[in-house]
């Protein structure tokens, strides 16, 4: 399955995600801590796998960022009729230079593809994109535990990320980046096929950026 990457086969990768990749549960986790915020940013949106959850919400303006041009092109094509959704081929650092701000920032399924230093840099970059009351939600597949069953272990062999972390390790990264943590949770993720068992466990870290002493950040 390592050959089935979103860069080489963006559409096939998306189909795979919908069939057994737990898309429904991932969307549920993306919305779990959403409380009516209207300016949403997803860092690492891929081909819009989670974006569909926000397309259904009235009044929400969604921006998805990804450094994978093929995935962004597919997302733009899929959601061309949704004028409140946009997809940009850019990193968080690059987008921060545009001056846009958001009150809900989602970093989902990205950090397990990068090492600790890069993960901290990515999270830190979102600070320049956050409103004063912005909620930051990090959702990541958790590393296998010694007592996980054979189904978990088989499913995780399909995972292409090289930096799967425990919830505590992910929490430490978020704190190292400077986030003020509101909660840290674990949630089961299924394939989306009725009758099949849970195949993965996700860590969800929720937090926000501390208020700055000077008026350097902006409100919605």
UniProtKB/TrEMBL annotation:
Q: Which residues form the Methyltransferase type domain?
A: 41-134
Q: Which InterPro entries match?
A: Methyltransf_12, SAM-dependent_MTases_sf
One Pfam family, short name please?
A: Methyltransf_12
Instruction: Give the UniProt keywords, A-Z.
Output: Methyltransferase, S-adenosyl-L-methionine, Transferase
Question: What GO MF terms are annotated?
Answer: methyltransferase activity
* Any single biological process term in GO: methylation
Coiled-coil region(s) at which residues? Answer: none
Instruction: Work out whether the entry's keyword set contains Zinc-finger.
Output: no
Q: Please tell me whether the keyword Cell wall biogenesis/degradation is annotated for this protein.
A: no
Return the protein name: Methyltransferase type 12
């Amino acid at each position: 399955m390592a050959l089935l990457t979103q860069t080489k086969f963006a559409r096939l990768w998306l189909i795979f995600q919908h069939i057994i990749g737990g898309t429904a549960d991932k969307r549920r986790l993306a919305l779990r801590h959403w409380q009516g915020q209207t300016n949403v940013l997803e860092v690492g949106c891929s081909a819009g796998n989670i974006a569909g959850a926000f397309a259904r919400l009235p009044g929400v303006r969604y921006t998805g960022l990804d450094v994978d041009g093929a995935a962004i092109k597919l997302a733009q094509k899929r959601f061309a009729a949704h004028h409140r959704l946009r997809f940009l081929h850019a990193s968080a650092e690059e987008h921060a230079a545009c001056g846009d701000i958001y009150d809900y920032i989602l970093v989902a399924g990205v950090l397990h593809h990068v090492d600790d230093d890069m993960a901290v840099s990515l999270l830190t970059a979102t600070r320049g994109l956050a409103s004063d009351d912005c909620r930051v939600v990090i959702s990541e597949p958790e590393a296998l535990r010694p007592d996980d069953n054979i189904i978990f272990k088989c499913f995780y062999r399909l995972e292409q990320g090289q930096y799967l972390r425990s919830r505590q390790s992910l929490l430490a990264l978020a704190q190292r980046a400077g986030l003020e943590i509101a909660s840290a949770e674990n949630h089961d993720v299924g394939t989306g096929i009725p009758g099949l068992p849970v195949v993965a466990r996700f860590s969800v870290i929720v937090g926000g950026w501390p208020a700055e002493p000077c008026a350097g950040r902006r409100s919605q």
